[in-house]
Design goal:
Helices cover about 30% and strands about 25% of the residues. It is built from eight helices and eight strands, in the order αβαββαββαβααβααβ.
């Protein structure tokens, strides 16, 4: 859809829209992204139903845990970004989860071997030693992570050409997990087509997914946004590709 609304109106609307939590319903009708084939929320729900104690790291607004039909007796979630904490507490009240605000660096505020299961969707960083510490022997870590060069087309449309990605490669995650004493039992990767239909959707996405264009502001990147707006109006869409990988590891 090429909108008839002007650049300034679309950008102002996206700047004013809230970005708390980790839901993307604001983009309905304005952007689409393919979903990974493994169905992360479904996998998490199945694991939660089979354990007694579970931890969700970087829960965002608690959107994944809130979908669990059979939560375990002990369910804890951590979140480091202050605006997300009340959102997560509200969303997770139904499943009886305790939401703990944490810092951006380790350690996790839990005793050793406290959980049968640790999960995390799109963690900022994975503290592998801490994950191993809080898992019980035989316990599992299940995580959907951001892959290397995700949304690179969008990053380069705003910032210009970028060097090849050095971080977030699945192989690096495997090595770090094994170094922490975990055994990787599953690893899958996917490239997902993402389509933006107006520049407002781009602005809102960049405000929310902050690593796509570090330090993004409308004022700083207005010229690039105008070019994107012109391109979307001419071509009907802007296409980029998200990269994800699923990793599951067990404590020996």
């Amino acid at each position: 859809m090429v909108t008839d609304r002007g650049f300034d109106e679309l950008v102002a609307e996206a700047e004013a829209a809230p970005v708390e939590g980790w839901g993307f319903s604001w983009l309905a009708g304005r952007a689409t992204e393919e979903r990974p084939p493994w169905g992360y929320a479904r996998l998490v729900a199945a694991r939660l139903a089979a354990v007694d104690a579970a931890l969700d790291i970087d829960t965002g607004g608690g959107e994944v845990l809130a979908e669990a039909p059979t939560p375990p007796p002990l369910l804890v979630a951590t979140e480091a970004w202050p605006p997300n904490v009340p959102v997560a507490r509200r969303n997770l009240r139904r499943v009886g989860a305790h939401v703990v605000r944490v810092g951006e660096r380790p350690p996790l505020p839990f005793r050793d071997a406290a959980f049968d299961l640790v999960v995390s969707r799109h963690p900022v960083d994975t503290w592998w030693d801490e994950v191993a510490r809080v898992l019980r022997p035989g316990g599992s870590y299940l995580s959907q992570q951001i892959g290397p060069g995700t949304m690179r087309e969008l990053s380069e449309a705003v910032l210009g050409p970028l060097p090849p990605p050095e971080h977030r490669h699945p192989e690096q995650a495997v090595a770090a997990a094994e170094a922490a004493g975990l055994t990787v039992v599953d690893l899958r990767s996917a490239t997902l087509r993402t389509v933006f239909h107006d520049v407002g959707a781009v602005v809102w996405f960049l405000r929310k997914v902050v690593w796509t264009v570090p330090g993004f502001t409308v004022d700083r990147h207005r010229a690039a946004l105008r070019r994107l707006d012109e391109r979307i109006r001419a071509e009907g869409r802007f296409v980029a590709h998200a990269r994800r990988f699923l990793i599951e590891a067990r404590r020996r």
